[in-house]
Fold this protein.
Amino acid sequence: MRRGLVGIAAALVVAMPSLFLAAPASAETVPDMWTVMVYMDGDNNLEAATVTDLGEMMVAGSTADVNIVVLVDTLDGPADLVYVNQGSTTTIAAWGEVNMGDPATLQSFISQAAALYPAENYALDFWNHGGGIMGVCWDDTSGSDKLTMPELRSAVVGAGVVMDVIMFDACDMAQAEIAHQFIGYADYMVFSQETMWGQGFPYDTILTRLVATPTMTDRDYAIVVGEEFVVFYDALGWNLCTISVYDMSYLTTVSGAVGTFASGMRATMSTTYKTYKACRLGAEEAAGAVDLMDFAQLVSANTKVSTSVRSAAAAVVSAVGGAIIFEWHSDDCDGMNGLGIWFPVSSVSYYWSPTMETMYRSMPFDVATHWADFLDSYYAKA
């Protein structure tokens, strides 16, 4: 089973209770090295995987320096906020039935985890199905509600906690637009352009390395996640496997380069559309997103494209190359370089409805790049 948009059934919408609960007596006052927060949405067809992944987390368990805190929701029962020990879990608070697709739930989780277990470094892991910019964390018992891109940002900003590392244990989330949603609130992103299989991240080996070396930096931890992902999936030999680490200090460098690139292509669309189309069709893609570096490399190398646009494309390649500090893909994903950008094949695609375009234009990435203007000019020539 993959953690993408498959098998997500609608169900009865239920009310979300108040989530702000009193801190337990064990609440800490002195910051530890790390608090790892896992937003585990098993209220769908991934329910069985919650048991497996919690078991993996218990192999390492929390220590005096590392806290592993999980909000776990399943189809069969209400949500619990749990603390992961070595070999067991402790329920911090019973939350009752919640909607994991509601940003209020996410905001409350982040706020409570940070208040109960203050740390020098925070990691936030989104655990569920992913659909690129269409959203993440579907909750089947809440009408298949999900966290949209605006909701992701509003929850993190509302919680007011800057994350050192944000991880997506979900399909199709390694996109420039998604990284930009967390501008100012994350230092590193770990995500996949392609499928995140049901096994997800190998939490046992990832967290074992963290608890063994809790002094590791946020950059080091993000790379550890990537390295252990590679060890696990390379040994399995599975297809459609990708992982990358994005250094968020490059956000404005990437968006600036993409903005110049988009502007140049718009200005030359009347004469160069067929060439841009050939580059688009030749680039690696996944779920409505094209690999940004692959597309830019094809444009940069094409002599039918103007010198200025080729130069702008080369600048995108350079920017992405700097931003992606770790990348790996299975052999069948040779065109993947760690970061996608929304570029559906056509304007009538499922991925570019009027509602999608309105949402897209509200995202910080499009405000910075005007990529949607490029897409509209491209589709107008189709």
Q: What stands out?
A: DSSP finds 13 helices and 14 strands in the chain.
